[in-house]
Automatic annotation (TrEMBL):
This is MBL fold metallo-hydrolase. Residues 21-208 form the Metallo-beta-lactamase domain. Pfam families: Lactamase_B_2 (PF12706). It comes from Oceanidesulfovibrio marinus.
Length: 266
């Protein structure tokens, strides 16, 4: 069996207002190390989930970067909590935050609202790096690529590569031609699947995807595994039997709906 290069932990898998599941957030790290990790999104409730599910040895200086897909609260407003806790836990090493236009202003502003006067006192430096459609960023052994999805606010899906392995994370939004291209050949595709079927929003005007559309995307992209995340709370908790039927009849697509704390090796 081919050796894994990356571990992916689903810290949270819920949508913005799901009281049972933390906001969707993924942690990627080298398979052999509890360090050099990348956090993908950190919403209102995801920061506490980081401390609940991340390896204990990672929690101070083991996080290398945080990548934000877009500036909706359920994808970045957990950062004041997380950054403050990292400081209290003794972090001293530089942290890189990657995000779209506005992130370098929004994160400090949110921090100052949460803890006035504290951002400048953080015991570790923060470096902001701008992500944009079509941009490729290399950081140590990580490679990031970005593409817009179909969402109400600019959302940049992320393709994260390490040692030939590929994690693709949608953030929010129905797939676009650009984000579909980004997903090609992914070892693991974590795709926002808010609705149950395409009929719930056939034209994608709401800026959200569906379970059915995600399965179709994974098949077309040749993704090895598909994780359904950010499912509407009414669907996840009220119609899960229908989700299971769709997963069981997905045919050649290896699809699943992860629980918080679920870990995949790729």
């Amino acid at each position: 069996m081919e050796a894994a290069a990356m571990r992916v932990i689903f810290l949270g898998v819920g949508e913005a207002f799901d009281e049972h599941l933390a906001n969707t957030s993924l942690l990627a790290m080298p398979d052999s190390l509890d360090s050099d990790a990348v956090l993908l999104d950190c919403g209102f409730t995801a920061a506490a989930a980081f401390y609940l599910h991340a390896p204990a040895g990672l929690r101070a200086d083991g996080l290398s970067a945080i990548a934000i897909t877009h500036l909706h609260g359920d994808h970045f407003l957990g950062l004041p909590w997380l950054l403050h806790r990292l400081g209290e836990d003794g972090r001293t090493t530089r942290l890189t935050i990657l995000g779209p236009d506005g992130a370098a202003d929004a994160v400090p502003a949110a921090y100052e609202l949460a803890y006035p006067g504290s951002y400048a006192k953080l015991p570790f430096p923060i470096v902001y790096t701008r992500s944009a459609p079509g941009v490729q960023l290399d950081m140590d052994q990580w490679r990031f690529r970005f593409a817009p999805s179909r969402h109400g606010l600019l959302n940049l899906a992320i393709r994260l590569e390490r040692e030939g392995k590929v994690l693709c994370y949608s953030g929010d939004g129905a797939p676009s031609p650009e984000s579909a291209t980004l997903a090609k050949g992914a070892d693991l595709l974590a795709q926002e699947s808010y609705f149950l079927d395409i009929g719930s929003d056939p034209d994608g005007v709401t800026g959200h995807g569906s379970v059915e559309r995600s399965i179709e995307l994974a098949r077309q992209a040749g993704a090895h595994r598909l994780a359904l995340v950010h499912i509407a709370r009414s669907v996840r908790h009220g119609r899960y039997d229908e989700i299971e039927r769709m997963l069981n009849t997905a045919g050649d697509v290896h699809a699943f709906a992860p629980q918080p704390g679920c870990m995949c090796r790729i």
